[in-house]
Amino acid sequence: MNRLNALLSYVALRLALAPVMLWAIASLVFLLLRLTPGDPVDAILGGRAPELVKEAVRSQLGLTGSWLEQYGRYLWDLVRGELGTSLSTRGERVGDLIQRFFPATAELGLYSLLIAVVVGIAVGTMAALRPNTLWDASGRLFGILTYALPLFWVGMVMQLIFAVHLGWFPIGGRFPVTLTPPNPITSLYTIDALLQGDWTRWGISLHYLCLPAITLGLVISGIFERITRIELRETLNSDYVEAAIARKITPRRILINHALRNTLIPLITIMGLTAAALLGGAILTEVTFSFPGLANRLFEAITARDYPVVQGLTLFFGAIVMIISILIDVINALIDPRIRY
To answer: Tell me, which fold does domain 103-335 have in CATH?
Structure first.
């Protein structure tokens, strides 16, 4: 019970500090956007727009008055749950943008993470079980290459090979424009199609999702390969594994019940830390594959100097990373009773 109380106290403290973290993120975004050279109004309207129109846009952007006044209005809007209104999409609220575009990014992220975990653990396990062999060297090379290769370059190579030359996958998009997507339940196309038993649309959704998900998943998988190989090799050389071998326990049971289970803790932690990298990678992946997700919308807003959208989406992504971090801590504590808070 003491351990449970300590865990609950830790979670309560993290939740109490969450508004402070969000305030820090919001303040940093506010400051960086205003330190960026150039006038966002000129970037949106052009230099020849009438001054009255420019003043109206500045007022809508919250750029009138001193920085302190702008900052006060910005924080007050956040307290009221108002993330702002986009200027580049005819006045659409940022909250509506999140509701419309985030499911695509979430679906891409989930499938990419699944591919990264499966591939990374598989390659890392094979390398750890055969040290100082070709398998080990291949695993090391895989981890180095996937970590070092630029994501946008990998995406373009995948498009060139599998979409242009072989024609196995579409070059971009999320669903054919000539067809109607599955009826929205979760707004994740593959899940919605499964829930409705629509195998045709499920296959189409998965077909469009494969290439960007594989690209992002492969690039991230190197992190899991490295952690799995290092942690598993260390575990296999530990005393309790040698004791299990002496007790005539089969190698399969040792691997599954002892070695891989103890490797889960760092892997789960890395999964949480990868969330931030996954969101950053989603931007490059969505832009490369013209994938209509929220990360792509953030890139467009940065290009258009759409202050409200950039501020709102950055804060939203920051909140997601923070929530995932808390969940990872809780899961680690539940899996490993040695962890104390």
So the answer is: MetI-like fold (1.10.3720)
